[in-house]
Amino acid sequence: MPQLSPRITTLNGDGDDGWGVFYRARTMIAAGTPVTELTIGEHDIGTDTSILAEIHRSAAAGHTGYAMVPGVRALRDTVAARIAERTGVPTTYENILITPGGQAALFAAHMAVLSPGDAGLFIEPYYAVYPGTVRAASGQPLPVPTNAEDAFLPTYDQISAATRSAPRARSLLINTPNNPTGTIYPRETLDGIARACRAHDLWLISDEVYDTQVWEGEHLSPRALPGMEDRTLVIGSMSKSHAMTGSRIGWICAPAEVIPPLIDLATNTTYGVPGYIQDAALFALTAGPELETSVAEPFRRRRALALSILEGQDIVRVIPSRGAMYLMLDIRATGLDGQDFANRLLDAHRIAVMPGESFGTSGAGHLRVALTVADDRLAAALDTLTTFAANLARETA
């Protein structure tokens, strides 16, 4: 048959997307083997019934045809008002494109700012799809390494060094609150990021889908920093804030001049988001803060539970986690890398976690644990994990 495009056959670079443990766990579950899954960021509570009722109401009322490709005006207005209130930056519907989830927004943002062959930078450790998203936009993915000892916070010097190695560097993708590490970039870190973007004339793509999951400190959008409004594209989503992962609805907030070309892209790719899903998102965003708090609360509680368990031992070290639904665990004291540890843990105890190597070389020797199972199951899994790690450390001592 005719040859496929390298654009699609090379999305995963070396052919491994780093999700081998996850796929193994799912295969075991499909075969009837019970597994405690602490892998992906999927809420265990499901979408609130009031949002599901709104989906049904809107669909039954006939909002099942083509919706406006940029997004329903009322929803764009509401998203803009939400961003303006949270950041203090004037924002209108002209700054907003509604997308089929945050992933589609990430792809569209890179399509907007990268020409074929341009380098798209992103911070390590990174959400596993970042390199493939850059490649999908015909860009060259370029990770910016960080250090566990610095809580994986990037510095101006690290970004500048990466930029100097790529003469065609055009964009920088950041994520705060961060997946996989749980870190929240403080003002000092964001100032360094902004300074690097201005110094090297980079577009900044800011993935802020976890902005409602803040446990310590505060979230600051870099779009609000001096000189950054005109070079920042912000990615938002209903998936994490309202447990609407399967509904596939998110947005891009960008300079007004960027939105019309993005609308052209959406017209030729996704052709928008179903109207009944947009109506449900509008309902959810205007339902009040109590709904968002109820979605975030289990992760706040489980984080506290997990930290109390991990404080009782000295083999597994926790990267400071101030947001998002994950913990990043340093297991280098066991003598194993994250991939080997995760596979052994799955085989021995039927507990699935993500190896840190799934998120780039900076994550080597770490694990990402998703706080997405009931409290008692989480506690039992972490007790087992720490005991397993202690036994491995003794064997290699």
UniProtKB/TrEMBL annotation:
One of its GO terms (biological process) is amino acid metabolic process. Its cofactor is pyridoxal 5'-phosphate. Residues 35-384 form the Aminotransferase class I/classII large domain. Keywords: Aminotransferase, Pyridoxal phosphate, Transferase. Its EC number is 2.6.1.-. It holds the Pfam family Aminotran_1_2. One of its GO terms (molecular function) is L-aspartate:2-oxoglutarate aminotransferase activity. CDD domains: AAT_like. It catalyses: L-aspartate + 2-oxoglutarate = oxaloacetate + L-glutamate. It comes from the Bacteria. InterPro entries: Aminotransferase_I/II_large (IPR004839), AspAT/PAT-like (IPR050596), NHTrfase_class1_PyrdxlP-BS (IPR004838), PyrdxlP-dep_Trfase (IPR015424), PyrdxlP-dep_Trfase_major (IPR015421). Belongs to the class-I pyridoxal-phosphate-dependent aminotransferase family. This is Aminotransferase. It comes from Sagittula salina.
